[in-house]
């Protein structure tokens, strides 16, 4: 495999070995395999992902899992507004906008406190 950036031979060997083992045991489409190969050629592990997502126990979610989720969301949100797309993605991941609190007054969210450098602070 020809890597897209300079990596030490040891790192290249590890990444290539991971890739070969992963594609041997993981069913995937040709499009998914191409995306995974490009991910690895950029110097990433098949066990890492592009958005820094972690599963329970502090284990990174595999690239292919995140890739599939992103494709699914893109396919199912075509033609939606950005707000509808965000809501769809939130629902897909099981997150809720409704946290039981009333909405805040927008004027309060723009409240900014400025402190002079010379002002004594209690902390």
Count of beta strands: 2
Helical percent range? 40-55%
Distance between the termini: 56 Å
User: Oligomeric state of the chains?
Assistant: single chain
Output the structural class. mainly alpha
Write down the Rg. 22 Å
**Rough shape?**
elongated
Average residue pLDDT: 83
Ranges where pLDDT stays below 50 over 5 or more residues in a row are: none
The helix/strand series, from N terminus to C terminus, equals: HHEEHHH
Largest sheet: 2 strands, antiparallel
H/I helix tally: 5
Query: What strand line-up does the widest sheet have?
Result: 1-2
Percent of residues in β-strands: under 5%
What does this protein structure show overall?
This protein has helices at 9-25, 30-41, 63-76, 82-92, 106-109, and strands spanning 54-55, 59-60. The chain is mainly α. The N and C termini lie far apart (56 Å).
Brief descriptors of the model:
mainly alpha; two-stranded antiparallel sheet; elongated
Which helices and strands appear, and what pairs or packs with what?
Elements: H1 9-25, H2 30-41, E1 54-55, E2 59-60, H3 63-76, H4 82-92, H5 106-109
Gist?
With 123 residues, the protein is mostly helical.
């Amino acid at each position: 495999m020809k890597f897209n950036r300079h990596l030490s031979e040891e790192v290249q060997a590890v990444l290539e070995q991971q890739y070969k083992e992963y594609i041997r045991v993981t069913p995937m489409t040709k499009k998914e395999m191409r995306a995974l190969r490009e991910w690895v050629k950029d110097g990433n592990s098949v066990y890492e992902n592009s958005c820094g997502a972690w599963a329970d126990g502090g284990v990174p979610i595999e690239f292919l899992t995140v890739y599939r989720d992103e494709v699914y969301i893109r396919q199912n949100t075509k033609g939606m507004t950005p707000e509808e797309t965000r809501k769809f993605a939130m629902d897909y991941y099981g997150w809720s906008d409704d946290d039981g609190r009333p909405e805040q007054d927008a004027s309060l969210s723009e409240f900014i406190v400025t402190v002079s450098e010379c002002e004594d602070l209690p902390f």
